């Protein structure tokens, strides 16, 4: 949000913040959410770079297309463990996964 809009909203009595503020997340919880989103984004990036469909990825993982869609959306039902295992199954190296985690920090 640009500074002018923020100033105007605050002058009108609105509080401006981010999702962490709204959800009252601790710093650790916010960091975990960012980590999960980064891994989910990387999963989608790998799929798109290879030209794979969600259905193709689902078959490779022994899962369903709807589950892959939830993984790429970092759905609450998807664990970080599942994202990491899926990335490794799809050919990402431990170093690449580590770099995604490091960038999210």
The biggest sheet amounts to: none
**How large a portion of the residues is in β-strands, by DSSP E?**
under 5%
Class computed from helices, strands and strand pairing: mainly alpha
Secondary-structure element pattern, one letter each:
HHHHHHH
- Unreliable stretches (pLDDT < 50, length at least 5) are none
So what's the overall shape?
A: elongated
Instruction: Name the helicity range.
Output: over 70%
Q: In total, how many domains does the architecture comprise? A: 1
User: What is the count of DSSP helices, taking H or I runs of 4+ residues?
Assistant: 7
At CATH's second level, what is the architecture? Orthogonal Bundle
List the topology elements:
Layout: H1 3-11, H2 19-23, H3 27-50, H4 54-61, H5 65-72, H6 80-89, H7 94-104
């Amino acid at each position: 949000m640009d500074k002018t809009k923020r100033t105007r909203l605050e002058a009108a009595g609105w509080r401006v913040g981010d999702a962490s503020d709204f959800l009252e997340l601790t710093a650790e919880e916010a960091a975990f959410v960012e980590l999960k989103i980064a891994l989910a984004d990387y999963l989608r990036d790998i799929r798109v770079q290879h030209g794979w469909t969600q259905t193709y990825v689902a078959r490779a993982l022994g899962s369903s297309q709807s589950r892959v869609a939830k993984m790429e959306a970092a759905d609450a039902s998807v664990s970080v463990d599942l994202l990491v295992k899926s990335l490794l199954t799809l050919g990402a190296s431990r170093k690449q996964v580590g770099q995604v985690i490091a960038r999210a920090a």
